[in-house]
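Input:
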Amino acid sequence: DSGVTQTPKHLITATGQRVTLRCSPRSGDLSVYWYQQSLDQGLQFLIQYYNGEERAKGNILERFSAQQFPDLHSELNLSSLELGDSALYFCASSVADSTQPQHFGDGTRLSIL
Amino acid sequence: QQQVKQSPQSLIVQKGGISIINCAYENTAFDYFPWYQQFPGKGPALLIAIRPDVSEKKEGRFTISFNKSAKQFSLHIMDSQPGDSATYFCAASNSGGSNYKLTFGKGTLLTVNP
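Output:
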């Protein structure tokens, strides 16, 4: 058990809808990272937050947004969903802004019908 | 642009054999190289990691070999066991910049036959 908790485990929704994925980092970790895993693209970095502030952006679509709350949990919001957004979404956390390693949760599987 | 190339895509090894997975990177600013193990339905779990100031790191049956001049690193699993059957990802990051994201290889599906 990595100590990173992601909910829900599975989400099934339709095109055009909006969903929110939730991540609770390991106790004491201040940095949260979001990754997308798909068969064709593999594991791709989306966005990083550190202590409530956005630190870095990767290949994140404009339809996607995230935030980190004062209690350090993070949410990834996906809107105007398309079939191609079907993927596994992972959250990882690390102790501080620049430290490794990153510890991953078990992900949320998003299926768009 | 794929910055970390991983091979092979899949690997079948007999129990007790040696599994070898290779990765090559392009960005010379990378200075942290972890390997993650992923079982179906689970997230990637850190297995072992190396920094470029050493050429080899061993933890139990798992060894990373690192060749800085060739920009390559590899994972060796000694005495492979059926329980090692999983997908393995190499990754790299740059701790000197402002973005500490991990750049992953495409993964290797390892099957260890009993």
